[in-house]
Structures are given as C-alpha cells and as structure tokens.
C-alpha cells in the first residue's frame, strides 16, 4: 500500500489506554522470507519505548520463531512440512527471536511461551496472569509466543492473532494493537478489488464483516485478515478495544506514539470490567464454597475489599485453585451467599489458612500465591 492508500484512513484518536498488547506477525519480521529483519521491527519497538516512557505497559505477542529457525538451517519453506519439522524450526528460532527483541530495549525482555491449553485451564491461566503481571511490575517487557515445540493444534492459521486477544484479556489490557501488512480493514480485499473502501471504525463485529476478510497475505505468516477480525471479536467480548494498522509504515507508528491512529478501530462490546463481572456472575461455580465472618463480608460489600484469610471460617467441597466459587456469610447454621469469585487457593489450602494472617501464608503452606484468598478484581457481589 502507498502512503496515499494509508491516508484514505482519516486520522482519529486512540482509545485511552494504560496497558496494551501488541501483536506482531512474521510478515513484519522476516527478511524476504528468511531470518529476522529490523526493517519494520525498529519502528514497532520505538512505539513500545515511547509508550513505556509515558508510563504505559506493553506486552508483545510475536510470531517469527519458525522463520528464524528456518534461516538458521538455511532451509526453504516446504509446503505441507511435517509438524515435527516445524516444531524443530521453532525450537531453533525461539531464542533468536527473544534476542532479536532484546536488541531494541535497555530494559530486560522476558520470554513467555504459552499454548491455548495453558489459558483454557483456570489454574494455569491464573499462573500465567500472575507471571505476566509480575514481569510488568518489575519493568520487564514480556514477549509472548506459542510454545510451538510441544503444541500440535496451535501451529495453524491465525494462531497468534487469537493468542494475542486471549493475552489481552489475561492481563486486563485496555487495547489490543494488531500490526498488519495492509492499512486497516476494508469492505473488500484491497489487493484484488481496486474500489475497496476503508473502514476506519467498526462499532460491532458481525458475520458479514468476517465474510469479506481474506486469507493469509504472506508466505511467512500464518494469519490473514479474517483471523485478525476473529481476534478482535474475542477481544471485544472481553471489553478490550482493537486497533488494526499498517506496521510497515513508520509514520503510522509515530502517530500511534502520540495517540493518533490511521487504521481501523474496533470497539469493545462493553467495558473491560463489565465483561469480567458478567463472566463472574454467570459462569457455573464449583460445588461448595468459602464461608466467611461478618467482618470479611462487610469489607467486601461495603469497602470493595479482597477476601483475606483472616476473615475465612471454613471451606466446603473440594475445589481447586483457579475455580469459581461462592462466598457465603456464616451466621449460626445459616449460609447467606454474598459474592462469587476466582479463588487463589484450593479448598484444602484454605482450611489450613482460615483465621490466619496473610503474612503467615507461606510459613503455613510452604508456598504462596499472594496475600488474598480471592482478589477484588476476581470477585463480584451477588
């Protein structure tokens, strides 16, 4: 696309954001189909550095490990290559990909390898969120990629687009930035339809929009516009806005650093907190739950506080860390449900922690997942 093509998208303000996920595909990183190139990555990294300098937090979801591994072996792409071959290339290229990103930043870059299974399992989901949150708190830059060396189903069309949307929900991001090799979303494929019209704003995703999205546009990438829109749809349901832009345009990246967009902005269905509260209110809870005293109940209801072990009286049932459970006030023999939340500890752990101080958790269990039994961000009143 030419500069004139990009200018067909009117400049607009970015949504307000404090934390973001930036997805970068292989088409922006590979050097003419082999190795890793800073041709486009340098401007993407400059945008991240400018955001960090402004006090914002960024997580990068980056493709490119297979392409990097292929360059190490000087191997040409093979149509229909065996999964084991692609996994071997990913294993070779992953370290080089992480080092490639580290070269753009003075702050430490952390490699985080995930699969969709890690994020479907509630316990591993919580562990991944805790790790990413801790990395951001320490000022590191997490670079997330699929754990392709052990995945089977994950090395498929559009994998990292959808992974980026899941990570955006995981870390409570305000916006998902998806860097593409075209200018944004059109009402038809601009590569084959010269009269395709730009769509700078999408208020709501629809089946008709997905139907006009094309397939993969790169010999090294695995995702096309359709998978990017599927990711935007997933992000929207979690209350996260999505921005599609041309990652090959340094001037577009410079505009993003000043909160100005030339591309497509896709609105979320609801606020991020509303989406999370909706899930907490409506997802099925595990049998049993946590019984608390009046002080803990009052703190949660009146003050919006987290549930601490000191206010816990007992745990009923055999739920596990990461399960959604009911929290009830125990009044004599009566149980009055007051909240639902995702527990940081199992039922067995909570029985050992009941009535203890948060500072005693590690001494009691031999490990700790934090000072709260249920954090206020994972809790909704009923």
Shape: globular
Number of beta-strand segments? 17
Mean pLDDT: 88
Report the top-level CATH class of the largest domain: Alpha Beta
Please compute the radius of gyration using only Cα atoms. 23 Å
Relative helix content = 25-40%
Q: From the helix content, strand content and strand pairing, which structural class follows? A: alpha/beta
CATH architecture of the largest domain: 3-Layer(aba) Sandwich
- Poorly predicted tracts of residues: 154-158, 216-223
Proportion of β residues? 15-25%
GO cellular component, one term: cytosol
Function: Catalyzes the transfer of a phosphate group to glutamate to form L-glutamate 5-phosphate.
GO molecular function, one term: ATP binding
Binding site for substrate: 63, 148, 160
Question: TL;DR of this structure?
Answer:
The chain is α/β, with parallel strands linked by helices.
Descriptive report:
It catalyses: L-glutamate + ATP = L-glutamyl 5-phosphate + ADP. Pathway: Amino-acid biosynthesis; L-proline biosynthesis; L-glutamate 5-semialdehyde from L-glutamate: step 1/2. It is an enzyme of class 2 (transferase). The structure is a single chain. Helix 2 packs parallel to helix 10 (250-257). Helices cover 37% and strands 21% of the residues. The chain is of the alpha/beta class and 382 residues long. It is built from 14 helices and 17 strands. The protein has two domains: 3-273, Carbamate kinase, CATH 3.40.1160.10; 283-381, PUA domain (Archaeosine Trna-guanine Transglycosylase, Chain: A, domain 4, Roll), CATH 2.30.130.10. It starts with a helix and ends with a strand. The longest helix is centred in the first third of the chain and has 20 residues, at 83-102. The chain has an eight-stranded mixed beta sheet with strand order 6-7-5-2-8-10-12-9, sandwiched between helices.
């Amino acid at each position: 696309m030419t500069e004139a093509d990009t200018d067909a998208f009117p400049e607009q303000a970015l949504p307000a954001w404090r934390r973001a996920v930036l997805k970068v595909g292989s088409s922006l990183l590979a050097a003419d189909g082999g190795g890793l190139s800073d041709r486009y990555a340098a401007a993407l990294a400059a945008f991240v550095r400018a955001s960090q300098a402004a006090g914002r937090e960024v997580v990068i979801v980056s493709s490119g490990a297979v392409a990097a591994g292929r360059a190490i072996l000087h191997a040409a792409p093979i149509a229909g290559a065996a999964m084991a071959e692609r996994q071997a290339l990913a294993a070779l290229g992953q370290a080089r990909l992480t080092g490639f990103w580290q070269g753009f930043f003075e702050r430490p870059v952390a490699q985080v390898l995930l699969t969709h299974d890690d994020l479907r399992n509630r316990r591993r989901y919580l562990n991944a969120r805790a790790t990413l949150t801790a990395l951001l708190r320490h000022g590191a830059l997490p670079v997330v990629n699929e754990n392709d060396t052990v995945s089977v189903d994950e090395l498929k069309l559009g994998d990292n687009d959808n992974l980026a949307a899941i990570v955006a929900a995981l870390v409570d991001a305000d916006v998902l930035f998806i860097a593409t090799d075209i200018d944004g979303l059109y009402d038809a494929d601009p590569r084959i339809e010269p009269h395709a019209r730009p769509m700078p704003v999408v208020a709501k995703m629809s089946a008709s929009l997905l139907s006009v999205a094309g397939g993969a546009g790169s010999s090294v990438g695995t995702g096309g516009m359709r998978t990017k829109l599927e990711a935007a749809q997933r992000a929207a349901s979690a209350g996260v806005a999505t921005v599609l832009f041309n990652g090959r345009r340094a001037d577009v990246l410079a505009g993003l650093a000043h909160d100005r967009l030339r591309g497509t902005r896709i609105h979320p269905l609801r606020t991020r907190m509303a989406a999370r509260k909706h899930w907490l209110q409506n997802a099925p809870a595990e049998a049993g739950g946590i019984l608390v005293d009046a002080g803990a109940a009052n703190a949660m209801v009146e003050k919006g506080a987290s549930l601490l072990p000191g206010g816990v009286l007992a745990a009923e049932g055999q739920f596990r860390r990461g399960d959604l459970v009911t929290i009830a006030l125990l009044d004599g023999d009566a149980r009055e449900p007051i909240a639902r939340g995702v527990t940081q500890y199992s039922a067995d752990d909570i029985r050992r922690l009941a009535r203890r101080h948060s500072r005693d958790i590690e001494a009691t269990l031999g490990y700790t997942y934090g000072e709260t039994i249920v954090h206020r961000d994972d809790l909704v009143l009923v």
